[in-house]
# Entry
Amino acid sequence: MHAFQFDAPHLPPEALGARHRVRAFLAAERDAKAFSQHRSSWSIFDEGFTRRAGAAGFIGVTWPKEYGGQAQSSLVRFVITQEMLGAGAPCFAHWIADRQSGPQILRHGSERAKRLLLPRICRGECYFGIGMSEPNSGSDLAAVRTRAVKQDAGWVINGSKIWTSNAHRVHYLIALVRTGDAGADRHGGLTQFIIDMSQPGVTVRPIHNLAGGHEFNEVVFQDYLVADDMMVGAEGQGWSMVTGELAFERSGPDRFLSDYRLMVELINRVGPTPNQQQAVEIGRLVGHLAALQRMSASIAVLLDQGKSPNTEAALVKDVGTAFERELPEIARKLVPVEASLNDPEDVFAETLGHVTLHAPSFTLRGGTREILRGIIARGLGLR
Amino acid sequence: MSANVMPVHPEADLSSIVLEQADRLFRGEVTKERMAEADRGTWPSAIWAAVQQAGLPLALTAEQHGGVGLPPADALHLIRRAGYHTPPVPLAETMIAAALWAEASGEAIAGTLSLAPVGVSEVISIERGSGGYTLRGTAQRVPWATQVDHVLVHAYDAGASPWLALVPRPSLQDAKPRTNLANEPRETLTLDGVVVREAAVRAAPASCAGGFLLLGAAIRAQQMVGAMERCLDYALAYAMEREQFGRPLGRFQAVQHMLADAAGQYAAAAAAAEVAGEAYGTDDFAFATAVAKARVGEATGKVAEVCHQVHGAMGFTQEHPLHFATRRLWSWRDEFGHETFWQERIGRMVCSAGGEALWPKLVGK
# Structure
């Protein structure tokens, strides 16, 4: 069998130093009541928090200094994201840019795009969304139909994207569009462009989620003109770029810590002398968390060494999101509680309510469980 | 595992050599015929002779005491490899007992060894008399009790100080025959009145001051990770060779997803066991081992179930070797505390420290 590697993740001293700096920053944020920890998670969009995180030097830390970064190891970024998640910090405003859009632009973008965008991302002033899914292209990403046609002034885009998180709040999207023939494997003819949401030709329509929140949108392009140098990577290279980033996107601690604050509130609610059932179930959940933490950290080290542990990354997301979904199902049975959306006197009931309503998305976003299992099966030699 | 990781320390060289040798040795010695014979109760002397000749029982024993002196994490990897090949001998128990006895007495010891007591709440007492030390108590389900040369007994004196007593097998009587699901001997030893000479009793070193439960859980966790890897190897190979409806089983999405699920369970278990192996000898060992035994034990149920399902009726036969691994998994997960036992222990530890204390426990201070 493919032998999974989860070797000892030795963190460099600068990563340990970063851990202490982030903790101090987050403690100050908490003391200032800048965010409500128990109701928060990385999918909360808070520009103020992101600006302060940027000013404190916690965004884009791996990027070169000339583009506003700090040329740090990816393990420093790993530790920063871990700590943000552990604290339930509202990171969504910078999450996508820091995790995938910025690195894509740095690696494959034009010089103008890098100079224009990366320093602003680092300062926490410029936010990104992902333009992949379409009304008829969800898990089947290669079915993308939004099309860009080359003209003298650049490329003209027509079509629509859906489930675009924060399209109404971000400044840019990176959109995957069709520019040529799909070919037999349907992976050809796809290209990525940076979309400036302030330009004409792009319309955003809200889609409210079941929790009442407005995060999703439909984005419609009508003769939207994008300059040649806002193409990311070469024409027709979109598919390999999108799939090449997946190990980074999928193995991160955001794939098992989305509802970590519920774990904390559960332990606090149960108190120091649990009954046997409470102790057993909490102990089981902690065991799962500890294993996931190790898997994720070991993969971070492999990624830092330039390796591509794609199967392991898919495993972390599959096992990690299963944990995230199971947590509220177990937590609700361990204490007498009725989940609520607005019970300021019962922190646990509110956290449980928030998590329960968002849990269905955990095993969908960033690749559904079913897609991941297909990737794992391929890694196991079954495809 | 980790074959393509560059060795960083000189010991890593030695470790990878020992691990490769062990894999080769097990592959050659642990045949299906010998497994079947051991299953019927025959002591596999040829396998043990080869294991002993390769020095594997002393892998964890310090060099100054005549051992190989592998770093503990690597010695536990060796136990994992043994779990993969399932040699029907007490290699893991001997490795731990030999290292502990060398640590306590400064002397290496040859032959097969076991550990007692192994139950979660069993206590053996020891008292010094004129003719040596006298033991009292009963140790249940002792691994290989009647087949080993010595049993290393952990006992408390009247002042609650822990001791180790090296008890030769001939002095043990009335062992009731009992095996686990893999026909590995697990006999009850009545130690009441057993007298041990002075030279065979030493103060228990700190690494086993509280008994053998943690160390036993640590070795079973490693063995189970190895045995799960074996089951998945069998299942993946079978899924691609067995055809139904005109294509290999592994091409069916339902089968792919089942195996992907099992692989995820295995991966999480392997990661948890890895942490425990590295924590050997540190303050984190108790927590990491509790996590490993709980997480690995939980994974075994799913992995064994899926691998049998993939094999269909063939996997339910004596003929196919899958059962040598799965019957061990179904036994090992209950030995030295099952999942519920360790989960409760973790849960109590975590709850008494409070919610905010969990984070540094998970990622470090």
Q: What stands out?
A: Chain A touches chain B through 58 residues (CB under 8 Å).
